[in-house]
Design goal:
The structure is a single chain. With 351 residues, the chain is α/β, with parallel strands linked by helices. Helices cover 43% and strands 12% of the residues. The protein binds flavin mononucleotide. The site of flavin mononucleotide has 22 residues, from strand 2 and helix 10.
Length: 351
């Protein structure tokens, strides 16, 4: 149906350096291949990430289901969770074969499930283990192996914690780090609370970049405006946004114009009601193809319910999609009807 990475195993190349300037974060149950398809309609050049997959799932699971994705998703990073160097190396090598441009290790997720598997944020306390994973993975792939981490965990939250962690892992050959600029509390806070309660400490990430100018440092956490993105880029090499990109995807319609304007085929800024309608119509055709493959329409519409935000008719758009997605069979008609809520209401409110 689509040209997939799996059908093009020879095309794996590294992420071109400029693309690291702006990335859409890995988010479990959100940044799936369908959301990435939508994101690519809004930004040609931002670096996209998969949801985290465990090394075991990649090795033993249904690879086509887990790893297959549209070739247009590139540049695309496969995020892995795990702490066994041999398994991580094998999973990385499968990811490279599958056509991913980079492999990222999750050292930031604080959930209990992840801790019991001894990976995610608890590995902040085990820099040597992460370093061994990096080394084994780099030995098995030619694409970059990168790390996404926190500032620290629990009471280990001085600046030195993150710098020591990064120094150890960098010694094993990791050259790119994405730092979620807050620590994680492993005991007592839910993953959701761990994304809001520990305070953001951007200066720690800036200081890390000053201490290690040789490394590529991307900052992440609570960044929600393009002015903020530009301000951070004065201090670090890249910015990653998660929730803002998912819960207000139209935000991505300014990524290329703001960050990648010199790259070929960069999109002009677009965020008008009509321009977003074109994206929605394209996505409707995409959805229809997947519905014919047996995917539930509501699993696809969920990514566009927030396409319109704070414009007249946005609530009706959202409601129309949410209420009808479980019974509708024609994605194109569903989206066209929902669009009337925003297009009609907006033109009314304009006149
Ligand atoms: C629903 C959800 C799922 C997430 N899943 C992952 C994940 O799989 N791997 C990861 O490294 N971070 C994950 N994160 C954390 C984000 O990548 C990001 O670090 C965090 O949301 C802070 O960035 P933001 O403030 O721009 O959202 C998740 C975040 C959310 C909201």
């Amino acid at each position: 149906m689509f040209q997939s990475l799996a059908d093009n195993v020879d095309i794996a190349t590294s992420v071109p350096e400029l693309h690291r300037r702006f990335a859409v974060a890995p988010m479990m149950e959100l940044s799936d291949r369908h959301f990435r398809y939508l994101a690519r309609r809004l930004t040609r050049h931002s670096l996209l990430y998969t949801e985290m997959l465990t090394s075991k799932a990649v090795i033993h699971g249904d690879r086509r289901y887990l790893l297959d994705t549209d070739i247009a998703d590139q540049p695309l990073v496969l995020q892995l969770g795990g702490s066994d160097p041999i398994e991580m190396a094998e999973a990385a090598s499968i990811g490279q074969e599958w056509g991913y441009n980079e492999i990222n290790i999750n050292v930031g997720c604080p959930s209990d499930r992840v801790q019991s598997g001894r990976f995610g944020a608890c590995l902040m306390a085990e820099p040597d283990t992460v370093a061994q994973c990096v080394k084994a993975m780099r030995d098995s792939v030619s694409i970059p192996v990168t790390v996404k981490c926190r500032l620290g965990i629990d009471r280990d939250d001085s600046y030195e914690v993150v710098e020591d962690f990064v120094n150890t892992v960098a010694d094993a050959g990791c050259e790119q780090f994405i730092v979620h600029a807050r620590k994680a509390w492993l005991d007592g806070l839910s993953p959701r609370e761990n994304r809001t309660i520990p305070p953001l400490r951007y200066p720690y990430v800036y200081r890390l970049k000053e201490a290690r100018p040789d490394l590529h440092i991307t900052i992440n956490g609570g960044i929600e405006t393009w002015d903020a993105v530009k301000a951070h880029l004065q201090h670090v090499d890249g910015v990653m946004c998660g929730r803002k990109a998912y819960y207000q995807p139209a935000f991505l319609g300014r990524a290329d114009a703001t960050v990648f304007s010199e790259l070929p085929n960069a999109f002009d800024e677009f965020n008008t009601v009509e321009q977003l309608a074109e994206v929605a119509r394209d996505y409707a055709l995409y959805m229809q193809q997947w519905v014919e493959e047996g995917v539930r329409l509501s699993a696809l519409t969920r990514h566009i319910v927030a396409l319109y935000h704070k414009v007249p008719g946005a609530r009706l758009w959202r409601r129309h999609l949410s209420e009808n997605a479980s019974t509708a069979t024609d994605a194109v008609a569903l989206v066209e009807d929902a669009l009337q809520c925003v297009l009609v209401t907006s033109s009314r409110s304009v006149s």
